[in-house]
Amino acid sequence: MQLQAPRRPSLRARARALASALRPHARVIAIAIASPLAILVPCAAHAEVSKPFPGVTLVKRPGSALAIADLCAAGVSVRATKYAERRRTPESWANLVGADVAINADFFDLPAATYSDGRARGAGEDWPAAQQNVGLRERGEDRHYWQFGPVLGADPVEPASRPPLPSAAATEIVGGHNVLIRNGKSLAPAFDGDGVLQSPTRRTAIATNADRSRLYLFTIGATQTGAQLVASLLSHAQEAGMADIDFASNMDGGGSTQMYVRGQGQIVTSGRLVATHLGIMAKGSGPAPMCPGKRPIGAFDSADCNQITGWAFDPDDKSKAIDVALSYDGIFPDPRARVVRIPAGIERPDLGAPFGTTAHGFAAPTAFGIFDGKPHSVWTVAVDSAGGRSAMVGGPKQVTCTAAPPPSTKRHITDPATLAAWRFDGFADMLPQLAEAQIAAFTDGGRVAAPPELATVAGGNGLYLVEDGVRRRVVDDASRRAWRFDVSKAKTRTAAELLALESGPPLRARPMLVKGAGAPIYLLDALRTERDEADPLVVGDGPGSSGTGTSSGGQGGPGTGARDGVNGEDDASAGCAMTPTRAGAPHGAHAWLIVAGAAMAASAARLRSRRGERKGPR
To answer: How many structural domains does the chain have?
Structure first.
Protein backbone atom coordinates (compact mmCIF):
# COMPACT_ATOMS: atom_id res chain seq x y z
CA MET A 1 0.00 0.00 0.00
CA GLN A 2 1.30 3.43 -0.94
CA LEU A 3 1.69 5.85 1.99
CA GLN A 4 0.36 9.39 1.56
CA ALA A 5 2.30 12.38 2.83
CA PRO A 6 0.57 14.07 5.79
CA ARG A 7 -1.35 17.18 4.92
CA ARG A 8 0.37 20.40 5.99
CA PRO A 9 -1.79 22.51 8.39
CA SER A 10 -3.08 25.68 6.95
CA LEU A 11 -1.46 29.00 7.86
CA ARG A 12 -4.54 29.94 9.90
CA ALA A 13 -4.38 26.65 11.83
CA ARG A 14 -0.68 27.16 12.57
CA ALA A 15 -1.37 30.70 13.83
CA ARG A 16 -4.14 29.46 16.14
CA ALA A 17 -1.82 26.77 17.56
CA LEU A 18 0.98 29.29 18.17
CA ALA A 19 -1.39 31.72 19.91
CA SER A 20 -2.70 28.90 22.10
CA ALA A 21 0.84 27.92 23.10
CA LEU A 22 1.88 31.51 23.94
CA ARG A 23 -1.28 32.49 25.80
CA PRO A 24 0.07 31.46 29.30
CA HIS A 25 3.13 33.65 28.69
CA ALA A 26 1.35 36.66 27.28
CA ARG A 27 2.03 38.81 30.39
CA VAL A 28 5.76 38.17 30.30
CA ILE A 29 5.93 38.84 26.54
CA ALA A 30 4.03 42.09 26.97
CA ILE A 31 6.40 43.27 29.69
CA ALA A 32 9.45 42.37 27.62
CA ILE A 33 8.06 44.23 24.58
CA ALA A 34 7.11 47.25 26.68
CA SER A 35 10.51 47.41 28.38
CA PRO A 36 13.58 46.55 26.31
CA LEU A 37 15.67 46.84 29.54
CA ALA A 38 13.83 43.93 31.16
CA ILE A 39 16.53 41.55 29.98
CA LEU A 40 19.00 43.44 32.22
CA VAL A 41 17.12 42.77 35.48
CA PRO A 42 19.40 40.48 37.54
CA CYS A 43 16.65 38.11 38.62
CA ALA A 44 15.81 37.33 34.98
CA ALA A 45 18.83 35.01 34.71
CA HIS A 46 18.67 31.46 35.99
CA ALA A 47 20.46 30.96 39.33
CA GLU A 48 22.32 27.83 40.33
CA VAL A 49 22.22 27.27 44.11
CA SER A 50 24.56 24.74 45.69
CA LYS A 51 26.38 23.88 48.93
CA PRO A 52 29.97 23.27 47.86
CA PHE A 53 31.26 23.08 51.46
CA PRO A 54 29.65 22.47 54.87
CA GLY A 55 28.19 25.77 56.08
CA VAL A 56 28.64 27.54 52.72
CA THR A 57 25.91 28.29 50.15
CA LEU A 58 26.89 29.35 46.62
CA VAL A 59 24.52 31.19 44.28
CA LYS A 60 25.79 31.48 40.68
CA ARG A 61 24.50 33.25 37.62
CA PRO A 62 26.43 33.80 34.40
CA GLY A 63 29.17 36.28 35.29
CA SER A 64 28.24 36.68 38.99
CA ALA A 65 28.36 34.73 42.22
CA LEU A 66 27.39 35.06 45.89
CA ALA A 67 28.96 32.92 48.64
CA ILE A 68 27.13 32.86 52.00
CA ALA A 69 28.98 31.49 55.04
CA ASP A 70 27.17 30.38 58.20
CA LEU A 71 29.68 31.53 60.81
CA CYS A 72 28.07 29.26 63.42
CA ALA A 73 28.46 26.09 61.32
CA ALA A 74 31.08 23.61 62.52
CA GLY A 75 34.54 24.38 61.18
CA VAL A 76 33.66 27.67 59.47
CA SER A 77 35.96 30.67 59.97
CA VAL A 78 37.16 33.79 58.14
CA ARG A 79 40.65 34.81 57.07
CA ALA A 80 42.08 38.13 55.83
CA THR A 81 45.44 39.00 54.29
CA LYS A 82 48.73 39.40 56.14
CA TYR A 83 51.01 42.10 54.80
CA ALA A 84 53.47 39.49 53.48
CA GLU A 85 50.62 37.73 51.60
CA ARG A 86 49.51 40.74 49.52
CA ARG A 87 49.76 41.17 45.71
CA ARG A 88 48.11 37.92 44.69
CA THR A 89 44.96 36.90 42.88
CA PRO A 90 42.22 35.50 45.15
CA GLU A 91 43.00 32.01 43.79
CA SER A 92 46.72 32.29 44.52
CA TRP A 93 46.08 33.70 47.99
CA ALA A 94 43.42 31.06 48.80
CA ASN A 95 45.80 28.26 47.86
CA LEU A 96 48.46 29.87 50.07
CA VAL A 97 46.31 30.09 53.21
CA GLY A 98 43.91 27.19 52.62
CA ALA A 99 40.72 29.18 51.98
CA ASP A 100 37.79 27.49 50.25
CA VAL A 101 36.29 30.76 48.97
CA ALA A 102 38.13 34.05 48.41
CA ILE A 103 37.41 37.48 46.94
CA ASN A 104 39.30 40.72 46.49
CA ALA A 105 38.70 43.24 49.27
CA ASP A 106 39.74 46.89 49.79
CA PHE A 107 41.04 49.60 47.43
CA PHE A 108 44.83 49.79 47.11
CA ASP A 109 47.67 51.36 45.12
CA LEU A 110 47.64 49.77 41.67
CA PRO A 111 49.73 47.96 40.53
CA ALA A 112 52.26 48.01 43.39
CA ALA A 113 49.79 46.80 46.05
CA THR A 114 51.91 48.20 48.88
CA TYR A 115 49.09 49.69 50.97
CA SER A 116 45.37 49.39 51.74
CA ASP A 117 42.97 52.34 51.71
CA GLY A 118 41.38 51.09 54.95
CA ARG A 119 42.47 49.13 57.99
CA ALA A 120 44.13 45.76 57.44
CA ARG A 121 44.94 42.80 59.70
CA GLY A 122 45.43 39.13 58.87
CA ALA A 123 45.65 36.17 61.25
CA GLY A 124 46.15 38.60 64.15
CA GLU A 125 48.96 40.55 62.43
CA ASP A 126 48.38 44.25 61.78
CA TRP A 127 49.74 45.73 58.58
CA PRO A 128 52.44 48.37 59.14
CA ALA A 129 50.80 51.61 60.26
CA ALA A 130 52.07 53.51 57.22
CA GLN A 131 50.63 50.87 54.85
CA GLN A 132 47.01 50.86 56.07
CA ASN A 133 44.18 53.35 56.62
CA VAL A 134 45.75 55.55 53.95
CA GLY A 135 42.35 56.86 52.82
CA LEU A 136 41.67 58.34 56.24
CA ARG A 137 45.17 59.58 56.90
CA GLU A 138 45.87 61.19 53.52
CA ARG A 139 42.43 62.02 52.12
CA GLY A 140 40.30 62.36 55.24
CA GLU A 141 37.93 59.57 54.12
CA ASP A 142 36.56 58.30 57.44
CA ARG A 143 34.68 55.27 56.06
CA HIS A 144 34.38 51.92 57.88
CA TYR A 145 35.98 48.51 58.25
CA TRP A 146 35.05 44.89 58.93
CA GLN A 147 36.46 42.95 61.87
CA PHE A 148 36.14 39.23 62.55
CA GLY A 149 37.09 37.31 65.67
CA PRO A 150 35.92 35.18 68.59
CA VAL A 151 32.21 35.87 69.33
CA LEU A 152 32.21 38.89 66.96
CA GLY A 153 30.74 37.31 63.85
CA ALA A 154 30.93 39.60 60.81
CA ASP A 155 31.23 42.96 62.53
CA PRO A 156 31.20 46.22 60.50
CA VAL A 157 32.67 49.18 62.42
CA GLU A 158 31.91 52.84 61.71
CA PRO A 159 33.80 55.13 61.38
CA ALA A 160 37.26 53.97 60.33
CA SER A 161 38.82 56.37 62.86
CA ARG A 162 37.40 54.25 65.67
CA PRO A 163 40.23 51.99 66.94
CA PRO A 164 39.72 48.27 66.33
CA LEU A 165 39.62 45.66 69.05
CA PRO A 166 42.93 44.05 70.09
CA SER A 167 44.15 41.32 67.77
CA ALA A 168 43.16 38.59 70.24
CA ALA A 169 39.54 39.72 69.94
CA ALA A 170 39.52 40.70 66.25
CA THR A 171 41.99 38.53 64.36
CA GLU A 172 40.94 39.62 60.84
CA ILE A 173 40.25 43.14 59.49
CA VAL A 174 39.56 44.50 56.01
CA GLY A 175 38.62 48.05 55.09
CA GLY A 176 35.22 48.86 53.62
CA HIS A 177 34.55 51.68 51.16
CA ASN A 178 30.94 52.84 50.66
CA VAL A 179 28.02 51.68 52.81
CA LEU A 180 25.35 50.20 50.52
CA ILE A 181 22.84 48.93 53.12
CA ARG A 182 22.55 50.03 56.75
CA ASN A 183 20.01 48.68 59.27
CA GLY A 184 18.40 46.67 56.50
CA LYS A 185 17.72 49.72 54.29
CA SER A 186 19.36 50.46 50.94
CA LEU A 187 21.05 53.86 50.77
CA ALA A 188 20.50 54.02 46.98
CA PRO A 189 20.56 56.04 44.86
CA ALA A 190 22.54 58.83 46.57
CA PHE A 191 24.47 56.64 49.04
CA ASP A 192 27.24 58.82 50.56
CA GLY A 193 27.53 61.09 47.53
CA ASP A 194 30.67 59.35 46.24
CA GLY A 195 30.73 59.34 42.43
CA VAL A 196 32.27 55.85 42.43
CA LEU A 197 28.76 54.43 42.90
CA GLN A 198 27.12 56.48 40.15
CA SER A 199 29.01 55.14 37.12
CA PRO A 200 28.83 51.46 36.07
CA THR A 201 31.78 49.15 36.69
CA ARG A 202 32.46 45.56 37.80
CA ARG A 203 31.59 45.21 41.49
CA THR A 204 32.56 43.42 44.72
CA ALA A 205 30.52 43.63 47.93
CA ILE A 206 30.57 42.25 51.49
CA ALA A 207 27.44 41.96 53.66
CA THR A 208 26.03 40.47 56.85
CA ASN A 209 22.68 39.88 58.54
CA ALA A 210 21.33 41.53 61.69
CA ASP A 211 22.79 39.07 64.20
CA ARG A 212 26.15 39.01 62.33
CA SER A 213 26.04 35.20 61.99
CA ARG A 214 26.27 35.14 58.18
CA LEU A 215 28.93 36.56 55.85
CA TYR A 216 27.99 37.36 52.24
CA LEU A 217 30.74 37.66 49.59
CA PHE A 218 29.47 38.92 46.23
CA THR A 219 31.11 39.63 42.86
CA ILE A 220 29.68 40.50 39.45
CA GLY A 221 31.62 40.84 36.19
CA ALA A 222 28.95 42.93 34.46
CA THR A 223 29.24 46.69 34.90
CA GLN A 224 26.74 48.13 37.38
CA THR A 225 26.00 51.31 39.29
CA GLY A 226 25.71 51.19 43.08
CA ALA A 227 21.93 50.95 42.90
CA GLN A 228 22.16 48.03 40.45
CA LEU A 229 24.73 46.38 42.72
CA VAL A 230 22.31 46.47 45.67
CA ALA A 231 19.56 44.94 43.49
CA SER A 232 21.88 42.17 42.27
CA LEU A 233 23.13 41.37 45.75
CA LEU A 234 19.61 41.11 47.16
CA SER A 235 18.29 39.03 44.27
CA HIS A 236 21.15 36.52 44.62
CA ALA A 237 20.51 36.34 48.39
CA GLN A 238 16.80 35.81 47.71
CA GLU A 239 17.61 32.79 45.56
CA ALA A 240 19.29 31.25 48.62
CA GLY A 241 16.38 32.22 50.89
CA MET A 242 18.67 34.50 52.91
CA ALA A 243 17.80 38.02 51.76
CA ASP A 244 17.72 39.50 55.29
CA ILE A 245 20.86 41.59 54.73
CA ASP A 246 21.36 44.22 57.43
CA PHE A 247 24.65 45.87 56.39
CA ALA A 248 26.56 45.82 53.10
CA SER A 249 29.72 47.47 51.77
CA ASN A 250 31.00 48.35 48.33
CA MET A 251 34.56 47.10 47.97
CA ASP A 252 37.22 47.60 45.28
CA GLY A 253 35.79 46.82 41.84
CA GLY A 254 36.66 47.16 38.17
CA GLY A 255 39.58 44.94 37.25
CA SER A 256 40.05 43.96 40.89
CA THR A 257 36.68 42.14 41.09
CA GLN A 258 37.34 38.39 41.42
CA MET A 259 35.97 35.33 43.24
CA TYR A 260 37.65 31.97 43.69
CA VAL A 261 35.88 28.79 44.80
CA ARG A 262 37.95 25.68 45.48
CA GLY A 263 37.21 23.02 42.90
CA GLN A 264 35.65 25.57 40.51
CA GLY A 265 38.49 28.04 40.03
CA GLN A 266 38.07 31.80 39.62
CA ILE A 267 34.42 31.91 38.61
CA VAL A 268 34.62 35.71 38.34
CA THR A 269 38.12 36.65 37.23
CA SER A 270 40.44 39.25 35.76
CA GLY A 271 43.90 38.00 36.72
CA ARG A 272 44.74 41.21 38.62
CA LEU A 273 47.07 40.95 41.61
CA VAL A 274 45.31 42.66 44.54
CA ALA A 275 46.54 43.82 47.95
CA THR A 276 43.85 42.48 50.29
CA HIS A 277 41.53 39.48 50.24
CA LEU A 278 38.79 37.97 52.38
CA GLY A 279 38.38 34.22 52.55
CA ILE A 280 36.11 31.56 54.02
CA MET A 281 37.50 28.37 55.57
CA ALA A 282 34.98 25.51 55.77
CA LYS A 283 36.52 22.44 57.41
CA GLY A 284 33.22 20.67 58.04
CA SER A 285 34.02 19.86 61.69
CA GLY A 286 35.45 21.45 64.80
CA PRO A 287 34.72 24.78 66.45
CA ALA A 288 33.10 27.82 64.85
CA PRO A 289 35.32 30.49 66.43
CA MET A 290 33.60 33.44 64.77
CA CYS A 291 30.04 32.54 65.68
CA PRO A 292 28.68 35.75 67.28
CA GLY A 293 27.62 35.74 70.91
CA LYS A 294 24.17 36.74 72.07
CA ARG A 295 23.51 40.46 72.19
CA PRO A 296 23.13 42.13 75.61
CA ILE A 297 19.61 42.71 76.94
CA GLY A 298 18.22 45.27 79.38
CA ALA A 299 15.73 48.03 80.09
CA PHE A 300 15.86 51.82 80.32
CA ASP A 301 13.76 52.56 83.41
CA SER A 302 13.91 56.31 83.95
CA ALA A 303 15.59 59.61 83.14
CA ASP A 304 15.23 62.88 85.04
CA CYS A 305 17.48 65.70 86.24
CA ASN A 306 18.76 63.54 89.08
CA GLN A 307 19.76 60.26 87.45
CA ILE A 308 19.47 57.75 84.59
CA THR A 309 18.43 54.25 85.68
CA GLY A 310 17.90 50.80 84.21
CA TRP A 311 19.55 47.39 83.91
CA ALA A 312 21.55 45.42 81.34
CA PHE A 313 23.57 42.20 81.11
CA ASP A 314 25.14 39.86 78.58
CA PRO A 315 23.34 36.49 78.37
CA ASP A 316 26.65 34.91 77.34
CA ASP A 317 28.18 35.74 80.74
CA LYS A 318 25.71 36.64 83.48
CA SER A 319 28.47 36.71 86.10
CA LYS A 320 30.05 39.80 84.61
CA ALA A 321 28.87 43.40 84.97
CA ILE A 322 28.88 44.99 81.53
CA ASP A 323 29.11 48.68 80.63
CA VAL A 324 26.22 50.82 79.48
CA ALA A 325 26.73 53.84 77.23
CA LEU A 326 24.45 56.78 78.05
CA SER A 327 24.12 58.59 74.74
CA TYR A 328 22.87 62.18 74.85
CA ASP A 329 21.38 64.15 71.92
CA GLY A 330 21.91 61.38 69.40
CA ILE A 331 23.30 57.93 68.88
CA PHE A 332 26.24 56.80 66.80
CA PRO A 333 27.00 57.73 64.05
CA ASP A 334 25.22 61.04 64.77
CA PRO A 335 28.06 63.57 65.29
CA ARG A 336 25.99 65.37 67.94
CA ALA A 337 25.99 62.33 70.22
CA ARG A 338 27.84 62.69 73.54
CA VAL A 339 28.46 59.47 75.45
CA VAL A 340 29.07 58.67 79.12
CA ARG A 341 30.04 55.05 79.84
CA ILE A 342 29.08 53.50 83.18
CA PRO A 343 29.09 49.98 84.69
CA ALA A 344 25.84 48.08 85.25
CA GLY A 345 26.65 46.27 88.50
CA ILE A 346 24.07 47.42 91.08
CA GLU A 347 21.93 44.80 92.82
CA ARG A 348 18.47 44.48 91.27
CA PRO A 349 16.54 41.75 93.16
CA ASP A 350 13.67 42.04 90.65
CA LEU A 351 15.89 40.43 87.99
CA GLY A 352 16.36 37.23 89.99
CA ALA A 353 13.11 35.46 89.11
CA PRO A 354 13.06 36.06 85.35
CA PHE A 355 16.81 35.83 84.67
CA GLY A 356 18.48 34.06 87.60
CA THR A 357 20.93 36.93 88.13
CA THR A 358 20.63 40.24 90.00
CA ALA A 359 23.76 42.46 90.02
CA HIS A 360 23.10 44.24 86.73
CA GLY A 361 21.43 47.56 87.54
CA PHE A 362 22.73 51.00 86.66
CA ALA A 363 21.99 54.41 88.15
CA ALA A 364 24.14 57.31 87.02
CA PRO A 365 23.84 61.04 87.65
CA THR A 366 22.41 62.89 84.69
CA ALA A 367 25.24 64.61 82.83
CA PHE A 368 25.72 68.22 83.94
CA GLY A 369 26.62 69.07 80.35
CA ILE A 370 22.91 69.21 79.42
CA PHE A 371 21.87 71.49 82.31
CA ASP A 372 21.18 74.44 80.00
CA GLY A 373 17.39 74.69 80.33
CA LYS A 374 16.83 73.08 76.91
CA PRO A 375 15.24 69.67 76.14
CA HIS A 376 17.70 66.83 75.53
CA SER A 377 17.20 63.21 74.48
CA VAL A 378 18.89 60.23 76.14
CA TRP A 379 19.45 56.69 74.84
CA THR A 380 21.02 53.73 76.65
CA VAL A 381 23.20 51.15 74.87
CA ALA A 382 24.53 47.94 76.46
CA VAL A 383 28.10 46.92 75.56
CA ASP A 384 28.87 43.23 74.98
CA SER A 385 31.08 41.65 77.67
CA ALA A 386 33.45 40.10 75.14
CA GLY A 387 33.84 43.25 73.09
CA GLY A 388 31.20 42.19 70.58
CA ARG A 389 28.21 44.12 69.30
CA SER A 390 26.38 46.58 71.46
CA ALA A 391 22.60 46.51 71.83
CA MET A 392 20.09 49.31 72.24
CA VAL A 393 18.51 49.09 75.70
CA GLY A 394 16.04 51.92 75.25
CA GLY A 395 15.32 55.50 74.40
CA PRO A 396 14.99 58.20 73.65
CA LYS A 397 13.72 59.74 76.87
CA GLN A 398 13.64 63.52 77.09
CA VAL A 399 14.83 65.66 80.00
CA THR A 400 15.07 69.42 80.52
CA CYS A 401 17.38 70.55 83.33
CA THR A 402 18.60 73.92 84.59
CA ALA A 403 21.81 74.49 86.54
CA ALA A 404 21.56 76.00 90.02
CA PRO A 405 24.99 75.72 91.65
CA PRO A 406 24.74 75.81 95.46
CA PRO A 407 26.83 78.20 97.57
CA SER A 408 30.31 76.76 97.21
CA THR A 409 34.04 77.13 97.52
CA LYS A 410 35.80 77.01 94.15
CA ARG A 411 38.98 74.95 93.95
CA HIS A 412 41.24 75.31 90.95
CA ILE A 413 42.06 72.23 88.84
CA THR A 414 45.45 73.44 87.70
CA ASP A 415 46.39 71.01 84.92
CA PRO A 416 45.17 68.09 82.75
CA ALA A 417 47.07 65.62 84.92
CA THR A 418 44.92 66.55 87.94
CA LEU A 419 41.77 66.30 85.85
CA ALA A 420 42.82 62.81 84.74
CA ALA A 421 43.91 61.67 88.21
CA TRP A 422 40.45 62.44 89.61
CA ARG A 423 38.81 60.88 86.52
CA PHE A 424 36.63 63.95 86.03
CA ASP A 425 34.55 64.03 82.86
CA GLY A 426 34.32 67.29 80.91
CA PHE A 427 30.72 66.54 79.87
CA ALA A 428 29.24 64.45 82.69
CA ASP A 429 30.69 66.60 85.50
CA MET A 430 30.90 70.07 83.93
CA LEU A 431 28.05 72.58 83.90
CA PRO A 432 27.54 74.69 80.76
CA GLN A 433 29.76 77.77 80.70
CA LEU A 434 29.08 80.29 83.46
CA ALA A 435 29.52 84.03 83.34
CA GLU A 436 32.77 85.32 84.81
CA ALA A 437 30.79 87.20 87.46
CA GLN A 438 29.25 83.93 88.64
CA ILE A 439 32.67 82.30 88.86
CA ALA A 440 34.05 85.26 90.82
CA ALA A 441 31.18 85.06 93.34
CA PHE A 442 32.32 81.67 94.66
CA THR A 443 34.73 81.70 97.60
CA ASP A 444 38.31 80.86 96.67
CA GLY A 445 39.37 77.51 98.15
CA GLY A 446 42.82 76.96 96.72
CA ARG A 447 43.70 74.14 94.35
CA VAL A 448 42.73 70.47 94.01
CA ALA A 449 45.61 68.14 94.85
CA ALA A 450 46.22 64.95 92.88
CA PRO A 451 45.93 62.07 93.02
CA PRO A 452 43.10 61.59 95.52
CA GLU A 453 44.03 59.55 98.60
CA LEU A 454 41.34 57.10 99.73
CA ALA A 455 41.08 55.18 103.01
CA THR A 456 38.82 52.44 104.33
CA VAL A 457 38.22 51.44 107.96
CA ALA A 458 39.86 48.22 109.14
CA GLY A 459 37.23 45.73 110.24
CA GLY A 460 34.36 48.00 109.25
CA ASN A 461 32.80 49.79 106.34
CA GLY A 462 32.97 53.27 104.96
CA LEU A 463 35.21 55.12 102.53
CA TYR A 464 37.07 58.36 103.22
CA LEU A 465 38.99 60.89 101.19
CA VAL A 466 42.11 62.10 103.01
CA GLU A 467 43.35 65.58 102.08
CA ASP A 468 46.14 67.41 103.95
CA GLY A 469 45.54 65.52 107.19
CA VAL A 470 41.75 65.90 107.01
CA ARG A 471 39.33 62.98 106.60
CA ARG A 472 36.22 63.46 104.46
CA ARG A 473 33.49 60.86 104.21
CA VAL A 474 32.12 59.46 100.94
CA VAL A 475 28.45 59.45 101.89
CA ASP A 476 27.29 56.25 100.10
CA ASP A 477 28.01 53.85 97.27
CA ALA A 478 26.10 55.97 94.76
CA SER A 479 28.39 58.87 95.59
CA ARG A 480 31.45 56.63 95.25
CA ARG A 481 30.31 55.67 91.75
CA ALA A 482 29.59 59.29 90.84
CA TRP A 483 33.13 60.30 91.89
CA ARG A 484 34.52 57.20 90.07
CA PHE A 485 36.58 56.20 93.11
CA ASP A 486 38.33 52.82 92.89
CA VAL A 487 38.02 51.15 96.31
CA SER A 488 40.77 48.69 95.44
CA LYS A 489 43.24 51.60 95.56
CA ALA A 490 42.17 52.72 99.05
CA LYS A 491 44.53 52.23 102.01
CA THR A 492 43.18 50.37 105.02
CA ARG A 493 43.47 52.32 108.29
CA THR A 494 42.31 51.65 111.81
CA ALA A 495 39.43 53.63 113.28
CA ALA A 496 41.87 55.21 115.72
CA GLU A 497 44.12 56.39 112.89
CA LEU A 498 41.20 57.98 111.07
CA LEU A 499 39.83 59.55 114.26
CA ALA A 500 43.23 61.11 114.83
CA LEU A 501 42.81 63.06 111.60
CA GLU A 502 40.96 66.35 111.64
CA SER A 503 37.32 66.04 110.60
CA GLY A 504 36.14 67.71 107.42
CA PRO A 505 32.73 67.76 105.75
CA PRO A 506 31.64 64.83 103.60
CA LEU A 507 31.99 64.92 99.86
CA ARG A 508 28.98 66.15 97.98
CA ALA A 509 26.95 63.49 96.22
CA ARG A 510 28.76 64.06 92.93
CA PRO A 511 31.49 66.29 91.50
CA MET A 512 30.47 69.58 89.89
CA LEU A 513 32.94 71.40 87.64
CA VAL A 514 32.54 74.92 86.26
CA LYS A 515 34.42 77.24 83.95
CA GLY A 516 33.91 80.65 82.48
CA ALA A 517 35.04 82.06 79.16
CA GLY A 518 38.68 81.60 80.17
CA ALA A 519 40.78 78.46 80.53
CA PRO A 520 40.56 77.78 84.33
CA ILE A 521 38.40 74.90 85.49
CA TYR A 522 37.12 74.74 89.07
CA LEU A 523 35.63 72.09 91.34
CA LEU A 524 32.73 73.53 93.33
CA ASP A 525 33.34 72.29 96.86
CA ALA A 526 31.59 72.84 100.18
CA LEU A 527 31.62 76.02 102.22
CA ARG A 528 34.04 76.14 105.13
CA THR A 529 31.13 76.29 107.59
CA GLU A 530 29.83 72.82 106.67
CA ARG A 531 30.27 69.87 109.06
CA ASP A 532 29.80 66.11 108.84
CA GLU A 533 27.14 65.24 111.42
CA ALA A 534 26.71 61.60 110.33
CA ASP A 535 30.26 60.24 110.40
CA PRO A 536 29.97 56.61 111.64
CA LEU A 537 33.36 56.87 113.29
CA VAL A 538 31.86 59.46 115.63
CA VAL A 539 28.17 58.66 115.96
CA GLY A 540 28.37 54.94 116.52
CA ASP A 541 28.26 52.89 113.33
CA GLY A 542 31.97 52.33 112.96
CA PRO A 543 34.70 50.41 114.82
CA GLY A 544 35.77 51.98 118.09
CA SER A 545 32.64 54.11 118.38
CA SER A 546 30.78 54.37 121.70
CA GLY A 547 27.67 55.98 120.19
CA THR A 548 24.24 54.58 119.53
CA GLY A 549 24.37 54.39 115.73
CA THR A 550 22.06 57.35 115.08
CA SER A 551 22.89 60.90 114.21
CA SER A 552 22.34 63.43 116.99
CA GLY A 553 22.23 66.15 114.32
CA GLY A 554 18.89 64.97 112.91
CA GLN A 555 20.22 64.71 109.33
CA GLY A 556 19.66 60.95 108.86
CA GLY A 557 21.82 57.94 109.49
CA PRO A 558 25.22 57.22 107.99
CA GLY A 559 25.27 56.99 104.23
CA THR A 560 22.09 58.96 103.62
CA GLY A 561 23.98 61.66 101.74
CA ALA A 562 22.26 64.96 101.11
CA ARG A 563 21.89 65.95 97.47
CA ASP A 564 24.06 68.55 95.82
CA GLY A 565 21.61 71.40 95.40
CA VAL A 566 21.57 71.36 91.61
CA ASN A 567 17.78 71.34 91.53
CA GLY A 568 17.25 73.57 94.52
CA GLU A 569 18.11 70.97 97.18
CA ASP A 570 20.82 72.93 98.92
CA ASP A 571 21.80 71.37 102.25
CA ALA A 572 24.74 72.42 104.39
CA SER A 573 25.60 68.79 105.10
CA ALA A 574 26.05 68.18 101.35
CA GLY A 575 29.25 70.24 101.15
CA CYS A 576 32.78 69.03 100.78
CA ALA A 577 35.28 71.82 101.51
CA MET A 578 38.09 71.02 103.92
CA THR A 579 37.44 72.66 107.30
CA PRO A 580 40.24 71.55 109.65
CA THR A 581 39.72 71.59 113.41
CA ARG A 582 42.46 73.05 115.54
CA ALA A 583 44.37 71.10 118.14
CA GLY A 584 42.96 71.66 121.63
CA ALA A 585 39.71 73.19 120.42
CA PRO A 586 36.57 71.54 121.86
CA HIS A 587 34.92 70.76 118.56
CA GLY A 588 35.23 68.27 115.68
CA ALA A 589 35.96 64.64 116.56
CA HIS A 590 37.24 65.47 120.07
CA ALA A 591 34.12 67.48 120.87
CA TRP A 592 31.86 64.62 119.81
CA LEU A 593 33.82 62.17 122.00
CA ILE A 594 33.52 64.50 125.00
CA VAL A 595 29.78 64.97 124.50
CA ALA A 596 29.20 61.25 123.95
CA GLY A 597 31.18 60.36 127.09
CA ALA A 598 29.29 62.87 129.23
CA ALA A 599 25.96 61.60 127.93
CA MET A 600 26.89 58.01 128.76
CA ALA A 601 27.99 58.96 132.30
CA ALA A 602 24.73 60.83 132.97
CA SER A 603 22.71 57.92 131.62
CA ALA A 604 24.53 55.43 133.87
CA ALA A 605 23.93 57.63 136.98
CA ARG A 606 20.20 57.81 136.26
CA LEU A 607 20.03 54.03 135.81
CA ARG A 608 21.75 53.39 139.17
CA SER A 609 19.34 55.81 140.85
CA ARG A 610 16.29 53.98 139.43
CA ARG A 611 17.63 50.58 140.55
CA GLY A 612 18.11 51.92 144.08
CA GLU A 613 14.51 53.19 144.20
CA ARG A 614 13.15 49.82 143.09
CA LYS A 615 14.99 48.04 145.93
CA GLY A 616 13.27 50.15 148.62
CA PRO A 617 9.90 49.41 150.29
CA ARG A 618 6.82 49.81 148.08
So the answer is: 3
